[in-house]
Each structure stands twice: as C-alpha cells, then as structure tokens.
Design a protein that fits this description.
flat; mainly alpha
Length: 114
C-alpha cells in the first residue's frame, strides 16, 4: 500500500514537470528590442575587447541606458507602417493555418520575404 501511494506521488511529481505549453508564440516587441540591444552591446564589447568585470559593467550600462554604441535605436522603431502591417498579416495567416513551432516560423519568414 505504501508502494502504491509513493508511486502515485512520484508519477504526479514527474508529470507536473513534463507539462509544456505546446503553443509557440512569437516574442513580444519589447523582447525583440531587448534581444537586438543585447546583440549590439555584445558586438560592441567584443570590438572594444573588454573582459571580466569591465565587460559586465559595460554591458550593464549599455543595456540599461541604450545610449552607448549601436544599441541606441531598437529594431521595432525602424520598421515602417507597411512592414508592420505585412508582419501582422503573415502572423494572422499562420494563426489561421494553425501552424506552430518551426513550421510557423518558417511560414512567417517565407511570407515576409515574398
């Protein structure tokens, strides 16, 4: 009886950690901006050759202020209204087709190129 109880608890614990949301979502505009800013700051830190604590400090300031180097202008702000509309249209088409994960990403990328 103890074994059955322990087994059921073990199954519950394992299953709770395995549950994953299968819906793939695109990153929010804020996440895209942060990713680009981080990439730009990383490139600039690499070009300057900063390492260790100096690099940590540089990255902290670069990411928080956005005033250093190329991290000044986020990607989403540079898109025209037409580009934003095209992105929205492609995402809606993918949603209507119920595409998820890599298939959705590939569809949206191909849609934007065409």
């Amino acid at each position: 009886m103890k074994f059955t109880g322990m087994l059921s608890i073990l199954v519950l614990l394992l299953s709770s950690g395995v549950v994953v949301d299968a819906r793939a979502t695109d990153p929010s505009p804020a996440q895209l901006v942060q990713r680009e800013r981080m990439g730009n700051c990383n490139k600039e830190a690499k070009l300057k050759g900063v390492k260790g604590n100096e690099r940590k400090e540089f990255m902290k300031e670069c990411l928080s202020s956005g005033k250093k180097g190329t991290a000044e202008k986020p990607a989403m702000e540079t898109k025209t209204a037409e580009e934003k509309e095209k992105i929205k249209t492609c995402r809606n088409e993918a949603k209507q087709k119920k595409l998820q994960g890599d298939a959705r990403k590939a569809f949206v990328s191909q849609c934007l190129e065409g």
